[in-house]
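Here is the promised in-class demo. Please do not try to memorize the tokens; focus on the logic of going from shape to residues.
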């Protein structure tokens, strides 16, 4: 029985002062898809997989309303979790492509939906029972823009030089998407190769986004994934992907859930020079927030996660710690 999202979110809605029209009801439940052998084989071969009907219209509209509210109120900006991923992200500039990292910190009801439980079930089918939720994020492409999300591998945003983990991002559009308003594009089979070199977007270290130079892959092989709202596309941490510009008359909003499997030791240390060379404005905002009381909020969040972690996730974390401890000797 999937738990109703009616209880826990109430305090969060009051805290965020969400508009009254955002009312959670008991949505019609869609069962978690049982991926077929063909689905798994396609994901293994291509590095991405489109899944239809993962989220019904009522859930889509509720999630969309929450995220729009977070963007409009600039929730998380002071902490450095809301920023312009393609611009200089300063107060004097209009945003090019806003992004919120971990919106569920500010609207925890996002993790109390049937959609989240279905996504989690899919991740554990592909990554194994140790797979656990890592974080969520949302990207807003303004209407009539020409901003293209640069080609990249999600693993390139990692920071651990000694361990990596298989990762799955479950990307869901909150309106129909096509090549006209920013659907995702993929390089099939790119996940089978190594982590490729990246650099700051347009060689500007003040910008949050990174990109993989075109010399490392064949862009003509790219496959677009248009789909209706509520469908999803899954991709791995090394799958090269980008998103087209939104030239339509309406904003394009996407919500992404990220899950990771067990930690795997790297055969050799992996440097991330494209991360150390960056200095986006969000880093300074986060530091200011941290030293002006944010550290207390982080401690409370850690205690809350620890106290409310499900048994499976807790066991998974303990196994990871044990593997790291053994590997250090």
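The designed amino acids, position by position:
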């Amino acid at each position: 029985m999937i738990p109703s999202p009616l209880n826990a979110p109430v305090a969060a809605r009051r805290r965020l002062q969400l508009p009254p029209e955002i009312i959670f009801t008991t949505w019609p439940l869609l069962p978690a898809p049982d991926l077929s052998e063909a689905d798994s084989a396609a994901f293994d071969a291509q590095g991405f997989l489109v899944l239809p009907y993962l989220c019904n219209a009522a859930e889509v509209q509720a999630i969309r309303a929450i995220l729009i509210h977070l963007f409009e109120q600039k929730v998380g900006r002071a902490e450095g979790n809301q920023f312009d991923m393609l611009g200089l992200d300063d107060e004097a500039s209009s945003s090019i492509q806003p992004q919120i990292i971990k919106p569920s910190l500010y609207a925890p009801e996002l993790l109390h939906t049937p959609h989240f439980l279905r996504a989690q079930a899919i991740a554990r089918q592909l990554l194994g029972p140790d797979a656990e939720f890592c974080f969520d994020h949302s990207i807003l492409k303004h209407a009539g823009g020409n901003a293209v999300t640069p080609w990249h591998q999600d693993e390139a945003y990692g920071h651990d030089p000694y361990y990596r983990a298989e990762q799955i991002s479950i990307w869901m559009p909150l309106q129909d998407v096509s090549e006209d308003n920013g659907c995702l594009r993929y390089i099939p089979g790119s996940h089978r190769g190594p982590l490729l070199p990246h650099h700051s977007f347009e060689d500007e270290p003040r910008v949050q986004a990174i990109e993989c130079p075109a010399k490392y892959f064949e862009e003509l092989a790219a496959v677009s994934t248009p789909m209706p709202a509520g469908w999803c596309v899954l991709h791995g941490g090394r799958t090269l992907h980008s998103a087209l510009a939104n030239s339509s008359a309406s904003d394009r909003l996407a919500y992404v859930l990220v899950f990771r499997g067990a930690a795997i030791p790297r055969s050799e240390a992996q440097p991330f020079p494209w991360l150390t060379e960056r200095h986006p404005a969000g880093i300074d905002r986060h530091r200011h927030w941290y030293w002006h009381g944010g550290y207390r909020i982080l401690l409370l969040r850690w205690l809350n996660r620890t106290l409310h972690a499900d048994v499976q996730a807790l066991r998974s974390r303990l196994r990871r710690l044990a593997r790291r401890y053994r590997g250090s000797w």
